[in-house]
Write a structure and sequence with these properties.
The protein has 461 residues and is of the alpha/beta class. It is built from 18 helices and 13 strands. Helices cover 45% and strands 14% of the residues. The radius of gyration is 22 Å and the shape is globular. GO terms for molecular function: quercetin 3-O-glucosyltransferase activity; quercetin 7-O-glucosyltransferase activity.
C-alpha cells in the first residue's frame, strides 16, 4: 500500500455493512483499511450481534443497528436460519440508518462536505439491494467465497434434488461435471437436507448480485482463472478480484475473540517447519468423540502441535471439557499447545509452522496459501468442501482426510505431510503457488491491478 496517503481525504465516503460472522468481518475490515489508505472516509454499519470492536479502528465511523435477534437465536448453530433472521430483523433499521446518512451528507456544506459514493456489503445480505436502489446508491457485493463456489452454488439445491436422491455408494467419488472439482458425496454433505428456506435465500442472493453494480472477490486469477471468466458471463457486472486482502494490512485487528498471543513465544522455541497448526475457524463445532480422536492423533504423531479450541463453542456441549482429566490435558501439553483463539495470520507466517490441519474456510485457505503452508483438509460444511478439493485435487498442496476423524488417519496424514517423499513434493508445489499468489498482489500483478480498477470504479460513481 502507498504510504503517506493515509490522511488525505478524497472527499468520498464509502458505507460498508459486513455480515456479522468472523469470516465475513475480517475481509470487510481489510477492504475498509485499503480504501481508507486510498483517501476514502469509511462508515461501517453493523448489527448488534457480533459487533466489531470499534475501538480497534479509530479512523472509521461505526454505526450500530438493531438486528432483531433474541438471546437464544444468537446461539444457534444453523447458519441459514441465522442469516434469514438477520436479514429479516435488520431490514428496517438498515433502511433508516442509510436514509439518515444520505440525508445528512446532502445537508453538509463547506470543506467538510463529503459525498457518499457507494455501499459495499456482503453477498449474504439480501435485504440491501432494493434499499440501495430505492435511494439511488450504487451497491457493490463482497463475497468471501472462492469464485467457483460463488458462481456455482446457486444450483446446489437443484443438483441435490435431481441427481442424488438415489445415489449408489459406487458413485459417491464421481466428479460433478456441473460443479468441478466437487464430488457427488461432497454435494450430499453440503446440502444434507431439503430446505425451502435455503432455496429461496439463494435465489434472492443470485438476483440481488446480478442487480448490483459489481462483485468483489478475495481471490485472484492465479487461484482460479477459468471460473473467473465464467463468472463474468454469468453475472454481467464488473468483477474485481483483489487477492488475499490480509496481505495489505497484516494482523487480525477485527477478531471477535480474545487472541492468545502466547502462541508466538511458544512457536519461537520450536524448530523450523516442525509444528502442525490446527484450527477449524470460528463456526465449526466438533463432538466430544471427534475432539478425543484429534487429540490422540496429535499426541501420537511426531510433530509438535498448536491447536485452537474455542472455549465454550468449538465442541458441542462444552461442559464435558471440564470433565477431561487434568492429567490428559497435561499429557497433551507435553507435545503441544492448546489455545482459545490464535493470531492466525502471524502463526501461519511463523518459520516454525510446517503444516495446517484446517476446515478450509476461504480465509484460512487463502492465508495458508499466501504463507506457503501445506494443508491437511478436514472440511465440514458448505464452501469448505469445494475449497478442500481445490487444495488437494487442483493445486495439490495438501492432503484430504475425506471426513475420517480417526486418530490413526490423522496421525498418518501428518506423517505424510511432513515426510521427505510425498510431503516434499507437496511443499514444492505450495512454494510455487505461494510465489504466484504473492506476485499477484505486488504492483503490476493481477490482483493489484484489479484493486486499482475497483478504486477507479468507486471514484467514478
Ligand atoms: N482466525 C484467527 N484465529 C484463530 C482461528 C481463525 O484469527 O484461532 C481467523 C482466520 O485468520 C480467518 C478467520 O478467523 O481470517 C476465519 O475465517 P475462515 O473463512 O477461515 O473460517 P470461518 O470462521 O468463516 O469458518
Amino acid at each position: 500500500m502507498e504510504k503517506g496517503s493515509m490522511d488525505k481525504s478524497n472527499g468520498l465516503r464509502v458505507i460498508l455493512f459486513p455480515l456479522p460472522l468472523q469470516g465475513c468481518i475480517n475481509p470487510m475490515i481489510q477492504l475498509a483499511k485499503i480504501l481508507h489508505s486510498r483517501g476514502f472516509s469509511i462508515t461501517v454499519i453493523h448489527t448488534r450481534f457480533n459487533a466489531p470492536k470499534a475501538s480497534n479502528h479509530p479512523l472509521f465511523t461505526f454505526l450500530q443497528i438493531e438486528d432483531g435477534l433474541s438471546e437464544t437465536e444468537t446461539r444457534t448453530h444453523d447458519v441459514t436460519l441465522l442469516l434469514t433472521l438477520l436479514n429479516r430483523g435488520s431490514e428496517s433499521p438498515f433502511r433508516d440508518c442509510l436514509t439518515k446518512l444520505l440525508q445528512s451528507a446532502d445537508s453538509e456544506t463547506g470543506e467538510e462536505k463529503q459525498r457518499i459514493c457507494c455501499l459495499i456489503d456482503d453477498s449474504g445480505w439480501i435485504l440491501t439491494q432494493p434499499i440501495a436502489q430505492s435511494l439511488n446508491l450504487p451497491r457493490l457485493v463482497l463475497t468471501n467465497y472462492n469464485v467457483s463456489f460463488f458462481r456455482n452454488h446457486f444450483v446446489l439445491p437443484q443438483l441435490r434434488r435431481e441427481m442424488y436422491r438415489h445415489l449408489q455408494d459406487s458413485e459417491k467419488d464421481d466428479l460433478v461435471q456441473e460443479f468441478l472439482p466437487l464430488r457427488k458425496k461432497d454435494v450430499l454433505q453440503i446440502i444434507d437436507k431439503e430446505t425451502e428456506v435455503l432455496d429461496s435465500y439463494l435465489d434472492m442472493m443470485l438476483e440481488t448480485t446480478k442487480a448490483s453494480s459489481g462483485l468483489i472477490l478475495m481471490s485472484c486469477e492465479e487461484l482460479d482463472q477459468d471460473s473467473l471468466s465464467q463468472a463474468r458471463e454469468d453475472f454481467q457486472v464488473p468483477i474485481f478480484t483483489i487477492g488475499p486482502s490480509h496481505c495489505y494490512f497484516p494482523g487480525s485487528s477485527s477478531s471477535l475473540f480474545t487472541v492468545d498471543e502466547t502462541c508466538i513465544p511458544w512457536l519461537d522455541k520450536q524448530e523450523d517447519k516442525s509444528v502442525i497448526y490446527v484450527s477449524f475457524g470460528s463456526i465449526v463445532t466438533i463432538s466430544e468423540s471427534e475432539f478425543m480422536e484429534i487429540a490422540w492423533g496429535l499426541r501420537n504423531c511426531d510433530q509438535p502441535f498448536l491447536w485452537v479450541v474455542r472455549v465454550g463453542s468449538a465442541v458441542h456441549g462444552t461442559e464435558w471439557m471440564d470433565a477431561i482429566p487434568k492429567k490428559f490435558i497435561d499429557w497433551l501439553h507435553e507435545k503441544g499447545k492448546i489455545v482459545n483463539w490464535a493470531p492466525q495470520q502471524d502463526v501461519l507466517k511463523h518459520r516454525a509452522v510446517g503444516g495446517f490441519l484446517t476446515h478450509n474456510g476461504w480465509n484460512s485457505t487463502v492465508e495458508s496459501v499466501f504463507e506457503g503452508v501445506p494443508m491437511i483438509c478436514l472440511p465440514f460444511v458448505w464452501d469448505q468442501l469445494l475449497n478442500a478439493r481445490f487444495v488437494s485435487d487442483v493445486w495439490m498442496v495438501g492432503l484430504h482426510l475425506e471426513g475420517r476423524i480417526q486418530r490413526n488417519v490423522i496421525e498418518e496424514a501428518i506423517r505424510r505431510l511432513f515426510s521427505e517423499t510425498e510431503g516434499k513434493a507437496i511443499r514444492e508445489r505450495m512454494e510455487i503457488l505461494k510465489e504466484n499468489v504473492g506476485r499477484s498482489v505486488k504492483p503490476k500483478g493481477s490482483a493489484y491491478r484489479s484493486l486499482q480498477h475497483l478504486i477507479d470504479y468507486i471514484t467514478s460513481f
